[in-house]
Write a structure and sequence with these properties.
The protein has 360 residues and is mainly beta. The protein is 3% helix and 35% strand. It has two helices and 21 strands. Strands 2, 3, 4, 5 and 6 form a five-stranded antiparallel β-sheet that branches. A four-stranded antiparallel β-sheet has the order 1-21-20-19, with no helix packed on it. The two termini are 30 Å apart. It binds 3,6-anhydro-alpha-L-galactopyranose. 3,6-anhydro-alpha-L-galactopyranose (AAL) binds next to β7 and β11.
């Protein structure tokens, strides 16, 4: 006779190639700076011996003021009124901020308010950035979409898509003035917003993984979907199997053994797990982890080096989200926040930290 728990205890962490721990280091050049938000870093790519990363960056007159008080210059949230910038590094530890890669569009364009949360794919000598776009500050039921830009060099210039490439599903009923909870028709898991794009090339096609938020759900109810295209610039077709996870917040995926590895954090019953889908669609939890990096991007490696489950998760950058809705009280003088709280998000380095054998 064995207990139920003993029955389930099939593999010890130290014997599981999908288990890891993480440690964190500063990322000088992208660290904490008063007046500047840096967050949601992309994966890291190495080109001609130089590491590149892209991220959300905003230089704001004050920390976020909340939706009711946002203006043309005061941000509602840390990722409001931002652009995608990039930085380079020769060793992966110290970074040099280079400047904007993709900037907000002119008034009236689909990306006029903010461009943020990028990921990068290098493919066939070309570079693709996928990122979130908004035309208005994140507020109640305002929708959010995903767009793409391409360049012949990681230093740009970048050519933006003329329209978003993945949109919220039209199955819900959106009234931007209403609280999402008041929606009468909720629709699918991604009926309100599509977020956190991550682009992989596999099986000759482009797989754009994303996080969905549905009307009538909290943003902590997030799940992931995938949209697939023959051409990196689209058109992207959402998988009929979506949502393909029941958990997870910011998307982190990597190619492994013809399938896809995934790091799920923060939300849902399978939060803080590493998962694998041999077909890129049907994910199974492989390990439960602790203290994973938030909004992680990992070093992208060649298929030829993808010899172990976590080779695609060796090190990268993640963010420290200092903003909390408790810290931003609506109606409070935003400049007062400067003197008190200092919620400026910033970027750190994470590394896998296995300590095998002799694990502690
Ligand atoms: C993040 C991501 C998306 C959200 C916001 C900025 O961590 O999930 O990018 O829109 O928070």
């Amino acid at each position: 006779m064995i207990s139920a728990a003993t029955h389930r205890f099939q593999k010890r962490d130290e014997d599981n190639p999908w288990f890891t721990r993480f440690r964190y280091l500063p990322a000088p050049g992208l660290g904490y700076e008063r007046g500047v938000v840096r967050r949601d870093p992309s994966c890291v790519i190495q080109v001609d011996g130089v590491y590149y990363v892209w991220y959300t960056r905003g230089a704001h007159p004050c920390p976020p003021v909340g939706h009711e008080r946002a203006t043309d210059t005061l941000p509602s949230m840390p990722w409001d009124l931002t652009d995608v910038w990039y930085a380079t590094s020769s060793d992966g530890y110290a970074w040099r901020e280079q400047g904007p890669a993709v900037k907000r569009g002119l008034a009236g364009s689909y990306d006029e308010r903010s461009i943020f949360t990028p990921d990068v794919l290098a493919h066939d000598g070309r570079y693709y950035l996928v990122y979130q776009v908004t035309a208005a500050p994140t507020w109640r039921s305002t929708p959010e979409s995903i767009a793409i830009a391409w360049a012949d060099s990681p230093r740009g210039p970048w050519h933006k898509s003329s329209a978003p490439v993945v949109e919220p599903d039209p199955s819900g009923e959106v009234d931007v003035r209403a609280h999402p909870e008041q929606a009468t028709i909720q629709g699918t898991f991604d009926s309100l917003r599509v977020h956190d794009p991550a682009l992989l090339f596999r099986d000759g096609r482009f797989w754009l993984y994303y996080k969905g938020e549905g009307i009538g759900h909290s943003n902590m109810d997030s799940k992931w979907g995938v949209a697939i295209a023959d051409d990196p610039l689209g058109s992207y077709e959402k998988s009929p199997l979506n949502p393909i996870t029941n958990s997870g917040h910011e998307v982190m995926v990597w190619n492994y053994a013809g399938g896809v590895g995934a790091l799920l954090t923060r939300c849902g019953p399978e939060k803080n797990t590493i998962q694998f889908a041999a077909d890129g669609l049907n994910f199974q939890a492989q390990s439960t982890i602790i203290a994973p990096p938030q909004a992680a991007g990992a070093l992208r490696i060649d298929e030829s080096q993808n010899t172990a489950p976590l080779a695609g998760l060796s090190w990268g950058l993640s963010h420290v989200a200092t903003y909390s809705s408790h810290g931003v009280v609506q109606g409070r003088d935003p400049l007062g926040l400067l003197a008190n709280d200092e919620p400026w998000d910033y970027i750190i380095r994470w590394e896998r930290h296995d300590r095998r054998p002799g694990f502690d």
